[in-house]
Specification:
This protein is an all-alpha fold and 486 residues long. The protein has one domain: Amino acid/polyamine transporter I (Up-down Bundle), CATH 1.20.1740. Helix content is 70%, strand content 0%. Helix 5 packs antiparallel against helix 12. The longest helix is centred in the middle third of the chain and has 33 residues. Keywords: Amino-acid transport, Cell membrane, Membrane, Transmembrane, Transmembrane helix, Transport. Belongs to the amino acid-polyamine-organocation (APC) superfamily. Amino acid transporter (AAT) (TC 2.A.3.1) family. This is Amino acid permease. Its main location: membrane. InterPro entries: AA-permease/SLC12A_dom, Amino_acid_permease_CS.
Length: 486
């Protein structure tokens, strides 16, 4: 949706229950949106990355997840308020353009696109390595190629097929976590299995206390925990293709607290009760450790299958979001015009195709030269993902101020406690970024940011020099929208 269309929407008093027309097909139903929201909040950060966080903080990692979970809820409610004001597929890129200026919208759209391209590269590569758990004879490049082509083909069929695939990917993750919780509860309360004699909730405080590494150890894990929630905002990109965004999206966002409570905090409480935190090491999945302690030899295979589906789910989401972001940029004159075109099924095939080509090239580079240079690019995904959260919060604060002054219609889904909750979330993110700079392992995430900002600055100046109206996203975009529908 272009800035011109936004003005017409406000001037024409568009019905509150109608989403703006963007040319997409509304093929994502409530069941699929709910699972996309769940899948965005559950990734390899829990199944694999939590082992390092546990070794750094001990049982207090549970508190870290609770605090970060609260911040994520504030972010999602801020996004929800914006979505109910104007549900569009461009989502936070559109809101940045409207409330923070055309340059911020330009930066946000291209940065989020890069985030998912880089994430897609890493996730497809990871999926290929997970396959070798069962068959080491399959070349990594071949598995990565098959996965990429298959997911691309699915994204070319229809948005409904994409949603259905995400539904089942998320179902695998949810089933694995619930299964772990139920088995763990049985071990703790009934005492069966090899872990029956040692499993106890007392493990949460009997090995050095709840804060065995001190408050400082817990604080240093906040960045790891934050990274585990990257992509939770993806549900906002689905707004332009949800069957009933005014009803479905608030419901999905309001489930964030119990999803975090059950799938993160609940699972960690059980795992740390079954296995003492002292047994965890970086690089070892806490789920694998718990299954081994219980005495389930198939545990490692189960977790490997789960992280495989999690990686494919992330790559699938990346293909979906990159095409929508490129089309949003193009519709506002901030990207190549051919990205505006849609297929007969209402899919941005050009944007998705170019993004997938980038992913394939990245997989090849990763295979040929898996050195530090590529790791620097991959690490940039973390800071670029957090940029989207910053933009969401800043846009919501500007929107709420305008709505309070009567300049814009009130949202039907106001963020509770705003503006204080949004300001708190922004301050929390700033603190985490500072901590990233203090951590040698995470510091490289910040190195690529200035270079990317320079590239975007030069790109924007080139567009503005060619056509200032296009750079601002304020004129000539209606022609692009007509071309996209033709």
């Amino acid at each position: 949706m272009t800035s011109v269309q936004v003005d017409k929407q406000h001037d024409g008093n568009e019905a509150a229950d109608e989403a703006p027309e963007e040319g997409y097909q509304r093929g994502l139903g409530n069941r699929q949106i709910q699972m996309i929201a769940i899948g965005g909040a559950i990734g390899t950060g829990l199944f694999l990355g939590a082992g390092k966080a546990i070794s750094m903080a001990g049982p207090s990692i549970i508190l870290a997840y609770a605090i970060v979970g609260l911040v994520i809820f504030f972010i999602m409610r801020a996004l929800g308020e914006l979505l109910m004001y104007r549900p569009v597929s461009g989502s936070f890129s559109e809101y940045a353009r409207e409330f923070l200026g055309p340059f911020v919208g330009f930066v946000t759209g291209w940065t989020y696109w890069l985030f998912w391209v880089v994430t897609g590269i890493t996730e497809v590569t990871a999926a290929a390595t997970y396959v070798q758990y069962w068959n080491k004879g399959i070349p990594q490049w071949a598995a990565a190629l098959v996965f990429t082509v298959a997911l691309f083909g699915i994204n070319l069929i229809s948005v409904k097929i994409f949603g259905e695939l995400e539904f089942w990917f998320s179902m695998v993750k949810v089933t694995a976590i619930i299964g772990m919780i139920l088995i763990g509860l049985g071990v703790i309360t009934l005492g069966f299995s090899d872990a029956g004699d040692t499993a106890s909730f007392a493990n949460l405080w009997s090995h050095g206390g709840f804060f065995p590494k001190g408050i400082g150890g817990t604080l240093m894990t906040l960045q790891i925990v934050m990274f585990a929630f990257l992509a939770v905002e993806l549900v906002g990109v689905t707004a332009g293709e949800a069957t009933n965004p005014k009803k479905v999206l608030p419901k999905a966002i309001n489930t964030v607290p119990w999803r975090i409570g059950l799938f993160y905090i609940g699972a960690l409480i059980i795992i740390l009760s079954v296995v003492s935190w002292t047994a965890f090491k970086p690089g070892v999945s806490p789920f694998v450790a718990a299954f081994q302690q219980i005495g389930l030899p198939a545990g490692a295979g189960i977790v490997n299958f789960v992280v495989l589906t999690a990686a494919l789910s992330s790559a699938n989401s990346g293909m979906y979001s990159t095409g929508r972001m490129l089309r949003d940029l193009a519709l506002n004159g901030q990207g190549p015009k051919f990205f505006t075109k849609l297929s007969k099924n209402g899919l941005p095939t050009w944007g998705t195709g170019v993004s997938v080509a980038m992913m394939l090239f990245g997989v090849y580079i990763n295979y040929q030269w898996p050195g530090d240079a590529f790791n620097y690019v991959v690490s940039f995904a973390t800071i670029s993902g957090m940029w989207a959260w910053i933009v969401i919060l800043a846009s919501q604060l500007r929107y709420r101020a305008k709505a309070n002054r009567g300049e814009l219609p009130e949202s039907e889904f106001k963020a509770p406690g705003s503006p204080y909750t949004s300001i708190f979330a922004l301050a929390f993110i700033a603190m985490v970024i500072v901590m990233m700079g203090a951590d040698p392992d995470a510091r490289i995430s910040l190195y690529a940011a200035p270079l990317w900002a320079l590239i975007l600055g030069v790109g924007y100046l080139c567009i503005k020099r060619r056509d200032a109206a296009l750079a601002a996203g304020t004129a000539a975009q209606e022609a692009s929208a007509k071309d996209a529908k033709s």
